[in-house]
Backbone:
C-alpha cells in the first residue's frame, strides 16, 4: 500500500501501477471471453460494451492520478500581521526581504502519487511562495520597505509532506539578516487527506498556504525576531 502513496520514485511506482491495472484488465477480458464461450446465449454486444467501459475507467484513473494541482492564492494571517505590528511596528523598525532559497538537496517540485507535479502556485517555486507570503505580511503590518537597511533572508533546510494519515506538511527554515546570524524554526501543519490520488494531492497543495502561515508565525513569534532589524 505504501508504494501507491509515497512521493518517492514516482516513475517507478507509476509504472508498477500501470502494469497492475493492465494485468487486471487482461484477466477480466479472459473471464468475459470464457463466459461467452461457455454460454452462446450471452449477448456479445454487452461484452464489448463492458470491455470498452473498463478501458475507459482504467485510462481515466491513470490520467486523474497524474493530474497537476494548483492551490488557492496565499491569504495573509491576521494573527501574524498583528504580531509583527506589536514587535517591529511599535519600535518603528523597517525591514526588506532578501533571498529565500531552498538548501541543496531540497525538492521544490514534489510529485503526485503517480507522476504529476503538485504546484502550490502557478509559476512559483515553494521558496518563492514563502518569500512572497512573508513579504505580504510584513507589508500589511506596515514594516516593509524595499530600501530598509535591514534585510531578512532565509534558507529552507527541510521540506516534506505526507499525503497519508496523519497527513501533514513539515517545513524548517533558517532566517537571518545583515544584523543578526538569526535562528531556525520548524512548522508541522496537519491536514485532512483522501484515498484517491487526485483528491489527496489537491489537499496537499491547498494545505501549503496554511502551512506557510504556521511557518511565518514561528518566525515572527521567536524571541530573536526583533534582532533581525535595527
Residues:
Amino acid at each position: 500500500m505504501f508504494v501507491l502513496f509515497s512521493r518517492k520514485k514516482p516513475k517507478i511506482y507509476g509504472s508498477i501501477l500501470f502494469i497492475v491495472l493492465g494485468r487486471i484488465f487482461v484477466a477480466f477480458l479472459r473471464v468475459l471471453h470464457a463466459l461467452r464461450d461457455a454460454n452462446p446465449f450471452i449477448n456479445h454486444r454487452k461484452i464489448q460494451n463492458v470491455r470498452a467501459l473498463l478501458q475507459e475507467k482504467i485510462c481515466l484513473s491513470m490520467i486523474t492520478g497524474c493530474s497537476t494541482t494548483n492551490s488557492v492564492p496565499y491569504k495573509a494571517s491576521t494573527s501574524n500581521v498583528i504580531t509583527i505590528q506589536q514587535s517591529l511596528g511599535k519600535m518603528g523598525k523597517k525591514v526588506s526581504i532578501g533571498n529565500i532559497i531552498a538548501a541543496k538537496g531540497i525538492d521544490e517540485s514534489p510529485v503526485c502519487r503517480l507522476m504529476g507535479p503538485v504546484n502550490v502556485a502557478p509559476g512559483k517555486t515553494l521558496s518563492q511562495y514563502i518569500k512572497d507570503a512573508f513579504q505580504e505580511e510584513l507589508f500589511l503590518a506596515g514594516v516593509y520597505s524595499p530600501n530598509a537597511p535591514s534585510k531578512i533572508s532565509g534558507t529552507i533546510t527541510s521540506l516534506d509532506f505526507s499525503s497519508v494519515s496523519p497527513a501533514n506538511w513539515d517545513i524548517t527554515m533558517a532566517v537571518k539578516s545583515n544584523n543578526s546570524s538569526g535562528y531556525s524554526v520548524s512548522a508541522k501543519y496537519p491536514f485532512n487527506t483522501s484515498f484517491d490520488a487526485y483528491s489527496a494531492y489537491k489537499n496537499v497543495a491547498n494545505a501549503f498556504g496554511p502551512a506557510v502561515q504556521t511557518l511565518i508565525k514561528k518566525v515572527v513569534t521567536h524571541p530573536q525576531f526583533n534582532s533581525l532589524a535595527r
